[in-house]
Amino acid sequence: MQTLYIVATPIGNKGDITMRAQMIMENVGLIAAEDTRRTARLLSMCGITKQMISYNEQTKRTKLPYLLKQLETIDVALVSDAGMPGMSDPGYELIQAAIEKGIEVVPIPGPTIIVTAVVVSGLPVHEFTYLGYLPRLKAQRVKFLERIVNEPRTMVIFEAPHRLKPALRDILAVMGDRRIAVCREMTKLFEEVYRGRVSGAINHFEEIKGEFTLVIEGKTKGEVDAASVEEELRVLLKKGVSARDAVSRVAKSSGLSKKAVYQMWLDIKK
Prior knowledge:
Blueprint: E1 3-7, H1 19-27, E2 30-33, H2 36-46, E3 52-54, H3 60-70, E4 76-79, H4 91-100, E5 104-108, H5 113-121, E6 128-133, H6 138-148, E7 154-159, H7 164-175, E8 179-184, E9 192-197, H8 198-204, E10 212-216, H9 226-238, H10 243-254, H11 258-269
Parallel strand pairs: 1-4, 1-5, 2-3, 2-4, 6-7
Antiparallel strand pairs: 7-10, 8-9, 8-10
Helix pairs in contact: 3-4, 6-7, 7-8, 9-10, 9-11, 10-11
């Protein structure tokens, strides 16, 4: 049996490729790439010519047996579009299958968006948890957020640009107006980090493009229970209290900003 190398590639700036990653990709017999076109550009920059095979969400079932067969005689490098393979991409299945067959699996560390986002967030870094992507559907997303609302550690979440605002609104409604860092296009030309509150992030991003990583503050002692605030607003809405009076009353009793409470009021009325 040969070796499966798990090779981290740049999350944006191609200059972040490590010398060891280049050496491994130059010497393996085959590269399994999430997107062969993107990997080809990286290899070209490094002056490497190498046989590649597409291994992604669409091809993983058909290509997995082939790659395991290849690993009987040659070394294979697994690379994703960005960062460390196996994190929220189909690399996990290949890694697991290789381990089960007794194939040596060697990580080649390098750039990772998770740690990059946490260290620039300004939020506590001594403990954090990575939660992947939020569910796409609102009902499932809300249930997911309700499960983690009491998580005390800093949380790292990926989100697609077209779902950023709906996700932020649900975070505000379920988890309250917590501190958050929204990291966009890290290490790339239009890199941006918004640091502030969830309500501010909703208003900050108007032209939503690029890849986003959310770093959310964990629950702190004395934090307002968003579910209780929402229930109080529902009661006032049923009583016919005006938006202005309801928002003012709840903001005063909960300690939340009027902007955050008003956003929750709008979500309830929907």
